[in-house]
Amino acid sequence: MLVKGEDDLRQDAVMQQVFNIVNSLLENNPITDRNKLHIRTYKVVPMSRRSGVLEWCVGTMPIGAYLGTAHTKYRPQDISPTAARSKLKDCHDTKRPTKRKLEVFNAILKVFRPVFHYFFTEHYLDPVTWYERRLAYTRSVATSSMVGYIMGLGDRHVQNILIDKTTAEVIHIDFGIAFDQGKVLPTPETIPFRLTQDIVAGFGSSGVEGNFRRCCEKTLQLLRDNQETLLTILEVLLCDPLYLWIVSTTSKAKATNARTKLSLGGKAANKGPAASVTKA
After folding, report:
1. Residue 182's domain spans which residues?
2. pTM to 2 decimal places
């Protein structure tokens, strides 16, 4: 159990409710149930506007915690994550054209290779277990990515995505940015979900084709077939007077701080006013 203060957990609790409803739909559908598609959830109990209690996800670790050491261990010849981010930050700060940013990004990819596939060879020594866990990881990423896209989840950096060291399933945490609130941040989030080179490396040789694509299609088809059910539930939640669906100053500062820490290892605080979200 984790007691958390200085943070509003009501939105996290709402997202867990939505995930549980989606899991019920996935279980009742013979195709998605046969493919073992579901979203890992955890308990969230808001105690007030600024505090609450969360279930501790035992046996998990942030993907970023593993990648931080794995890149140094398996690719010592590559440039450091800080150096890679610094190059992209320089392009952003100097307002380089998009074409130049793409050239810099592609150049970085050549000297900063993915290493997340080593997570599976480290933790699952038996070939059968290795294959099963890699498949479970692929299905988990596909399902959570599609549901996250529909729910407009933002702030999906590698410290907000845990991986279960036993089952290899991913668990998303910290839902302070949802329902496309990320689009009104100082640096708008326009990507639908996280699918970086390291995330894809865990899928195996087929990459995004094969199991990942099929699971994405099945999940998205299920959500489309049950859109009336989901819309009804979401409309009730979004119209609840107990919830204020805005990007709070705290959430905005947290997102900005996370990006700054990931890029420069420093601390920052964004104290700008809260921005309203108009999309329901």
Report:
1. 2-78+113-276
2. 0.84
Is beta strand 161-164 parallel, antiparallel or unpaired with respect to 60-62? antiparallel
Q: Taking 70 as the threshold, does the pLDDT of residue 269 lie above it?
A: no
Find how far residue 267's CA is from the centre of its chain. 21
Model confidence pLDDT, tens digit, residues 76-87:
999 998 899 999
Would 102 be classed as within a structural domain?
Answer: no
Tokens of 228: 């009336």
Characterize the bridge pairing of strands 246-247 and 275-276. antiparallel
Our measurement of the distance from residue 249's CA atom to the centroid of its chain's CA atoms, rounded to an integer in Å, reads 21
How far is Cα 110 from Cα 108, in angstroms, rounded to an integer? 5
* Tokens 């979203």, residue located: 39
Tens digit of each residue's pLDDT (9 = 90 or more) over 140-186: 999 999 999 999 999 999 999 999 999 999 999 998 888 888 888 88
- What three-state secondary structure class fits 169? coil
For the chain, what is the domain count? Answer: 1
Q: Which residue has the higher pLDDT, 274 or 63?
A: 63
CATH of residue 208's domain is 1.10.1070.11
* Within a domain: 95: no
What average pLDDT score do residues 233-260 get? 59
In sequence order, the 6+-apart residues with CB closer than 8 A to the CB of 243 are 10, 11, 14, 237
Token digits of residue 277: 């979200």
